[in-house]
């Protein structure tokens, strides 16, 4: 186990919020076809509120801080926020589309010793990227931003979200990232919209294509291990938990709402109304999330994939039950290994459903 | 005898977790966890206090250690962290780069 993994496990065991993802705005200069956010401003936290929250997070033990959006550079005070975060000695990761990053911005980010800048890039072809972002010339501007950051010596990762609109371009993006001298990461997850709209799920890539991605050594190097049939779950596996959401990680929205994760819209409190640490320690929602072990999952505890599934409790929650299966992950487990999941067997399905209907999404309206 | 002064770099991230200091250098993402003694040295690295004094006041005064061994261990620790750009070392006082 690496030192960092040890620290992560220690934080998990002690219930320390080691990592927080904070969206500083939902506003964006792009209108990506797959985006799950409502881009109108419904009352973002002020500079003082965000800085105050960051100070509380530092006191609570948060080390890894991701600042994202929307497009975070749309906030005029973004550098003031980053500077405050760095004064508090957070390990800061910024997620952006890099459209607004010029030489001056890259220089400032370097001076602030940002750990990583993650940039969304959908294709190596400008016409495909721009068709997804719906912002003309966004490809050129994003690539220019990446070059400025790279030239300043920042750690840059290109995040390639895969969907039906860019499925053929993953190799091109991977090659482009290598040419640019930056890291590449791929993610086939399309998340339902926050208002409950499932339309974007039609963009999810079909399972058969998932199989091709998972079984491609160029994209997944450790084929033998990754695609191996699942090992039978042990007692220890059943005593385990799905992920760090609510245990050592949480998400804070631009309106101050606290959730177990970006992808787990269970309202758990608001930092405008209550101190962060009180929410973290006392929120009944977070406390409930922390009690759920694999053995408590009625379907998944009986599944042969229980020891290796990437089951997302947030997606399960959006399907109606945080203790239920997450259909998107059933699909991944099946196409990764070829072994049917308990969820499929229970429904008599030979292949997983493309996606499940979502019945429980709570959009949070917050007033100051 | 010349003194050694140490200061924390501004290019690091740091946080206490269960009595140990986690430190990461943002330039190369090197990650360290410092034990209680190393954490005490780290926290006292203000750029103005000589290492010898830090060891005497913050280590020998707080922990049951042999002074010579403590000084030797501290010098080794400082050398290792400075090689990763996490601590700045000089034979004259330094302005601290990091806020805390």
Describe the protein's architecture and organization.
The complex is a heterodimer of chains A (368) and B (100). By secondary structure, chain A is an alpha/beta fold. Chain A is 36% helix and 10% strand. Chain A has helices spanning 3-14, 47-60, 78-87, 103-111, 126-133, 138-151, 170-180, 207-214, 223-226, 235-239, 276-282, 284-291, 313-318, 327-337, 342-346, and strands at residues 19-23, 64-68, 91-96, 116-120, 156-161, 183-187, 249-252, 258-259. With 100 residues, chain B is of the alpha+beta class. In chain B, 36% of the residues lie in helices and 30% in strands. In chain B, a hairpin with a 4-residue loop joins strand 3 and strand 4 (30-34). The model of chain B has no long low-confidence stretch (mean pLDDT 88). The chains are: A alpha/beta (368), B alpha+beta (100).
Task: Describe the structure concisely for a colleague.
Chain A is α/β, with parallel strands linked by helices. Chain A has helices spanning 3-14, 47-60, 78-87, 103-111, 126-133, 138-151, 170-180, 207-214, 223-226, 235-239, 276-282, 284-291, 313-318, 327-337, 342-346, and strands at 19-23, 64-68, 91-96, 116-120, 156-161, 183-187, 249-252, 258-259.
Biggest β-sheet of chain B, characterized?
3 strands, antiparallel
Q: Structural class, from helix and strand content of chain B?
A: alpha+beta
Helix content, binned percent of chain A: 25-40%
Could you estimate the helical fraction of the residues of chain B in percent? 25-40%
Global outline of chain B: globular
Strand residue percentage of chain A? 5-15%
- Distinct helical segment count of chain A: 15
H and E string of chain A: HEHEHEHEHHEHEHHHEEHHHHH
Mean pLDDT of chain B: 88
Oligomer: heterodimer
Strand order, biggest sheet of chain B? 5-1-6
Question: Which parts of chain B are unreliable, with pLDDT below 50 for 5 consecutive residues or more?
Answer: none
Strand content of chain B: 25-35%
Tell me, rounded to a whole number, the average pLDDT of chain A: 90
For the termini of chain A, the CA-CA separation is 44 Å
What structural class is derived from the secondary structure elements of chain A?
alpha/beta
Give the strand tally of chain A: 8
Rounded to an integer in angstroms, the radius of gyration calculated over CA atoms of chain A is 20 Å
The total strand number of chain B stands at 6
Number of helices, counting only DSSP H or I runs of 4 residues or more of chain B: 3
């Amino acid at each position: 186990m690496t030192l960092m993994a040890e620290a992560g496990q220690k934080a998990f065991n002690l219930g320390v919020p080691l990592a927080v993802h904070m969206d500083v705005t939902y506003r964006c200069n792009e209108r990506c076809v797959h985006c799950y956010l409502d881009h109108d401003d419904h009352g973002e936290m002020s500079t003082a509120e965000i800085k105050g929250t960051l100070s509380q997070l530092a006191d609570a033990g948060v080390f890894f801080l991701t600042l994202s959006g929307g497009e975070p550079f749309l906030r005029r005070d973004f550098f003031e926020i980053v500077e405050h975060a760095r004064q508090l000695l957070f390990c800061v990761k910024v997620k952006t589309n890099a459209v607004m990053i010029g030489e001056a911005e890259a220089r400032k980010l370097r001076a602030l010793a940002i750990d990583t800048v993650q940039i969304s890039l959908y294709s190596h072809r400008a016409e495909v990227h721009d068709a997804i972002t719906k912002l003309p010339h966004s490809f050129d501007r994003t690539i220019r931003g990446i070059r400025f950051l790279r030239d300043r010596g920042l750690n840059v990762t290109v995040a390639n979200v895969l969907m039906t609109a860019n499925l053929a371009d993953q190799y091109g993006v991977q090659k482009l990232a290598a040419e640019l001298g930056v890291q590449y990461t791929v993610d086939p997850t399309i998340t339902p919209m926050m208002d409950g709209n499932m339309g974007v799920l039609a963009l999810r890539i079909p399972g058969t294509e998932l199989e091709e991605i998972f079984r491609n050594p160029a994209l997944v190097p450790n084929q033998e291990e990754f695609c191996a049939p699942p090992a039978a779950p042990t007692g220890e596996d059943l005593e385990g938990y799905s992920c760090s959401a609510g245990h050592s990680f949480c998400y804070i929205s631009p309106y101050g709402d606290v959730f177990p994760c970006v992808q787990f819209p269970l309202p758990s409190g608001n930092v405008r109304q209550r101190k962060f640490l009180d929410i973290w320690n006392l929120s009944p929602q977070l406390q409930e999330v922390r009690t759920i072990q694999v053995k408590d999952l009625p379907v998944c505890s009986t599944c042969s994939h229980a020891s290796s599934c990437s089951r997302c409790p947030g997606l399960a929650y959006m399907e109606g039950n945080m203790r239920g299966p997450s259909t998107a992950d059933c699909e991944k487990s099946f196409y990764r290994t070829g072994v049917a999941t308990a969820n499929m067997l229970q429904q008599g399905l030979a292949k997983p459903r493309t996606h499940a209907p979502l019945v429980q999404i709570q959009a949070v309206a917050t007033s100051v | 005898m010349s003194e050694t002064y140490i200061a924390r770099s501004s290019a690091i991230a740091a946080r206490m977790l269960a009595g140990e200091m986690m430190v990461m250098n943002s330039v190369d993402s090197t990650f360290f966890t410092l034990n209680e003694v190393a954490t005490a040295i780290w926290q006292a690295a203000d750029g103005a206090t000589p290492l010898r004094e830090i060891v005497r006041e913050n280590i020998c005064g707080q922990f049951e250690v042999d002074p010579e061994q403590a000084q030797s261990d501290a010098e080794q620790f400082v050398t290792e962290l400075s090689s990763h750009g996490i601590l700045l070392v000089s034979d004259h006082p330094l302005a601290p780069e990091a806020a805390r």
